[in-house]
């Protein structure tokens, strides 16, 4: 289905701009325009690791050996509860989503895993407790921590840019740089796609990022910032 009318009526978004509308305002328009199938994928993108569905999956894996994925025992042994739930969220998104949504979940998992591995190497921390998932990038990171590029040369796009973000000491600036990379990724994924599901979902993700930063006003203070960072930094649970 083409969403030409919907997208033509929305303001352009750029990584360095103020959010032109609230998420709720966009959700109203999307609810009126999207098909039921596309709404399911929007719901996937809105899901967080504290979603009740993740609770159900955790309980099912713990109670039923037959349902447990191959990575379950190792993940339970080394990951925090928060990171375990994050891994389940990524796995669920990559299993249930359309190709665009699957790629988004995997890209965020890969980005956060590279960030985590870079921090582990810099501070001499055990990488096993920081890497989530069992895709190619996760497996390589666990085995090649000493390698300058972790053995990921040619495997992961924008690897140098992701690794360089860790050198940014200011937390807010670091998170903004990560979102800038996400904007670039979204633009690349939709460069030759016009007025389709992918364009709508990418628009939602971009607006969501802009709205997160619009909340970070001085009067909201450090507490609000750290809460948002905790939500954004799925896959990394280091105490700054």
Describe the structure.
The chain is built from 12 helices and no strands. The chain is mostly helical and 240 residues long. The protein has one domain (4-232). The N and C termini lie far apart (45 Å).
Low-pLDDT windows of residues: 231-240
Main sheet properties: none
CA distance, first residue to last residue: 45 Å
Number of strands: 0
Percent in helix: 55-70%
Tell me the fraction of residues in β-strands, as a range: under 5%
Describe the global form: globular
Could you spell the SSE succession in H and E letters? HHHHHHHHHHHH
Overall pLDDT metric = 88
Number of domains: 1
**How many helices does DSSP assign?**
12
Q: Which structural class fits the helix and strand makeup?
A: mainly alpha
Radius of gyration: 18 Å
Could you state the oligomeric state of the chains shown? Answer: single chain
Characterize this entry briefly.
The chain has 240 residues and is mainly α. The protein has twelve helices and no strands.
Secondary structure blueprint with pairings:
Elements: H1 4-8, H2 23-33, H3 36-46, H4 52-63, H5 72-78, H6 81-96, H7 99-123, H8 136-143, H9 159-165, H10 171-189, H11 197-214, H12 221-232
Helix pairs in contact: 3-11, 6-7, 7-8, 7-9, 7-10, 10-11
Which labels suit this protein?
disordered C terminus, 240 residues, mainly alpha, 63% helix, globular
